[in-house]
Each structure stands twice: as C-alpha cells, then as structure tokens.
Design brief:
347 residues; alpha/beta; Ribonucleotide Reductase Protein R1, domain 1; six-stranded mixed beta sheet; 11 helices; 21% strand; binds guanosine-5'-triphosphate; binds zinc ion
Length: 347
C-alpha cells in the first residue's frame, strides 16, 4: 500500500475494509468512468486501467468516485462508500441510478442575482446532508450583485443552516477562486451543483484549468470504433478531485427525509412537543409550532418551505415505491401469462 493512495482520496475508512490477504494480493483503485461493460479505474500512480465487469457485477452497481479492489484485469470487490449521490431512474427495473460516490464536499452554487432562492438551496442542502456530504454555499457574481449587496446574499445563505460555510466571490477572479482552497486539497473530492448559468463551469475551470463541457475523451474501442465518453473526474490545481457527471447537474430530491429533518431540526424538535403527535400545525390546540410563529421565534416562510420540501420528497419517494409495486404486478402478470402458455403447450 503506497502513500499515493491518499492522493486518490483513499482514507482509513477504506483501509479498514481490507483483509490481510486482500491487502497483499489486490490493488485498490478508484472508478473514474462507468461504461456499459467496463470501468475505467485509476490506481495509486493515477494510471488509467480499463477493467472488465464480470461475475456478479454490472455497470449500474458502480458510481464515479467509488473505490474498489482489482486483480489488474477485473474488479474483485466494491468497497463501502463514505457518501453517495443517487437519483431516481425513469425505468422500473433499476429504481435509483448512482451518480457519484465518496464526495467530501458539495459546492451548492448560486449567484448574487435572481437565481438566489432559499427553497432551492435548502433542497440541495437536504440532498447533501442525506448523502453524507459537507455542503458549502458558493455565491458567484459578487462583482455585479443585483437586487441587494453581496454581503446581504451571504447573510441570507448563512441563516439557512447552523455553521453553514458560505463563500461569495467573483468566479472569474483567480484570487477569489483561491478562497475555495480549503475544500480542494490533496485527498479531497468535490462536486458542484446549481442551476444553469450560475457559474459552475467558471468555478470548475478556475479549480482545474479545464473546460469540463468540452473535455470529453475520444478513443477507439476494442473493435476500432470511435467512441466518445464523458470524462467525470478532474484533478484540481490544489491536488483534490472534482467529480462532474451528467446526472450531477440534474439532481432532484428523493428519499431525503433524514436530510430534511436535520436541516430543519429546529422545526422537527418543536413539532415533537406539540400536544397531538399527528399535529398538522394548523389550528390545533397546544401546537408548539404555531406558538413559535406567534412569538416571532419561527419564521412563517421557513415553515412553509419545510412543508413544501417534505411534500416534494414524499411525492418523489412515493413514486419509486409505486414503480416498484407496478414492477411487481407486471412481473406477476408476465409469469402467469407464461404459465398459461406452457399449460396450453402441455409442458
Ligand atoms: N461577472 C461574473 N461573471 C460570471 C461569474 N461566474 C460566472 N460568470 C459568467 O456567467 C456565465 C455563465 O457561467 P457558467 O460558468 O457557464 O455557468 P454554468 O453554471 O456552468 O452554466 P451551465 O453550463 O448552463 O450549467 C458566463 O458568461 C460566465 O463568464 C462571476 O462570478 N462574475
Ligand atoms: Zn403543531
């Protein structure tokens, strides 16, 4: 085990999962690309290897950023993740699609203009907390704030969550980009989310020196055909890794009840002291939340956003369950049709 594994983002969390035998015989790698039938993995020397997916593994088991053990040709074992971002898949068969693994910090990006929206920031905060990732709010366009001052935007973002880190900057200014260094050093893994046009690509270019959107790799596959695959892991100037997968930019909320509870712990704590355990915080007597609003301790807008976020999460999580239900019904029906056919054929 060489020291350079640290550079890949390897920590004690992963070392602790290895048996002495695995330690001796297998190579730790980090997944940089997930293809249909193979994975591109980086070893401690940051050499790219194409590893075959064989045996029990299929591509959808893996996310960019995963750590695994390889025998040099194949993946032997996937290691437990420190954090995971997934999204709901459209199809029935696989309910969630893995987007990225083992990210330390999520830069939730917005700008000093109409894009700044507390509800949207809270949605990303809930996603980060649920996934086990430290959120940092990055507010771009501090050099040309609209509607209010850059400091006012910073204050509004800070108020969203206790001890929340907020960096307000001009993403085009290298001196400002340098203020992001605490999250970009050797061993650290970062991802960016935010709406279109807020400056994600500009921040990414500042951190890596590369244009992410155009950094696709063209190469020839085994049969000599040209293929274009999107690169997803980029080395940052400060030594860390930036993960940018296509799914990262379209993250939606799902199955994030714990993340929402943590983000709004003041409200959840209050709700626990309401007189009725099923209190809807509308007109019930003994409602601690109504009392906090009346006394000015709780902001009505915040309560409203909490409700909407919970509804959105419930709706999106429910759909997954329903899809599963539909899938089961469909496979039952398919089975009974097959059975009937076999019976007709006299099998
Ligand atoms: N003045 C100023 N312009 C910025 C700043 N950050 C980004 N921009 C500009 O805003 C525009 C959009 O920035 P991008 O980096 O492309 O935004 P994006 O979030 O990557 O957008 P998508 O690729 O659509 O997701 C570009 O013209 C940038 O030059 C900033 O801090 N200050
Ligand atoms: Zn109540």
């Amino acid at each position: 085990m060489t020291f350079d594994l640290k550079t890949l983002g390897w920590t004690q969390h992963f070392t602790g999962q290895l048996s002495p035998e695995e330690f001796e015989t297998l190579t730790p790698v980090r997944i940089a690309e997930v293809r249909r039938r193979s994975l591109i993995a980086l070893d401690a020397a940051q050499t790219r290897h194409e590893l075959a997916l064989t045996g029990e593994f299929i591509a959808s088991d893996f996310a960019v950023g995963d750590f695994a053990l390889s025998d040099g040709e194949r993946i032997i074992r996937l290691l437990d993740r420190r954090s995971l971002i997934s999204r709901k898949a459209a199809g029935i068969a696989s309910e969630t699609q893995l987007i990225a693994a083992n990210i330390d910090t999520l830069f939730i990006t917005t700008s000093c203009n109409h894009d700044f929206n507390e509800a949207r920031l809270e949605r990303y905060l809930a996603i980060a907390i649920e996934a086990g990732i430290d959120p940092v709010i990055v507010i771009t366009k501090a050099d040309k704030p609209e509607e209010m001052s850059a400091d006012a935007y910073t204050d509004r973002a800070r108020a969203l969550y206790r001890d929340l880190q907020v960096v307000t900057l001009n993403a085009k200014d290298p001196a400002d980009i340098a203020r992001l260094a605490p999250w970009c050093g050797t061993g650290q893994t970062l991802a960016l989310v935010g709406s279109s046009g807020v400056g994600k690509s500009t921040v990414a270019r500042g951190l890596t020196g590369e244009d992410l959107a155009v950094a696709d790799i063209r190469e020839d596959d085994a049969k000599g055909r040209h293929t274009t695959t999107a690169r997803s892991m980029y080395r940052m100037h400060d030594g860390g890794w930036l993960i940018d997968t296509p799914g990262m930019r379209e993250l939606a909320l799902h199955d994030a009840a714990d993340g929402i509870d943590a983000l709004f712990s003041d409200i959840t704590d209050l709700a626990a002291t309401c007189k009725f355990s099923d209190c809807q915080h509308e007109t019930e007597p003994g409602c601690a939340i109504r009392a906090a609003i009346d006394s000015g301790d709780l902001d009505e807008d915040r309560l409203d956003r909490w409700r909407k976020l919970k509804d959105e999460d419930a709706r999106n999580s429910e759909t997954v369950a329903e899809a599963r239900q539909r899938g089961r019904k469909f496979s039952k029906m398919a089975k009974s049709v097959m059975k009937a056919k076999r019976a007709r054929r006299g099998e």
